[in-house]
UniProtKB/TrEMBL annotation:
Pfam family, one: DUF2007
Residue ranges constituting the DUF2007 domain according to the UniProt record: 5-59
Protein name as it appears in the record: DUF2007 domain-containing protein
InterPro entries for the chain: DUF2007
Amino acid sequence: MSENWVKVYTTGDAFAAEVLKQGLVEEDIPAVIINKQLSAYNIGEINVLVNKVDFDKAIEYIVKNEIE
């Protein structure tokens, strides 16, 4: 993965990560999900990443939408 991508959100909930990713994309903020969970047990983390240049916009979106 390129060093231009930075993590903006971590969760254990795959659905929440996907909803956030879709919301960011709808705001023209490209986003990707990196799922580090052990699939059989859903143990571990799921990270949502955006490009460094979009970091501030992504954080603003997360705060505005009260995503925890």
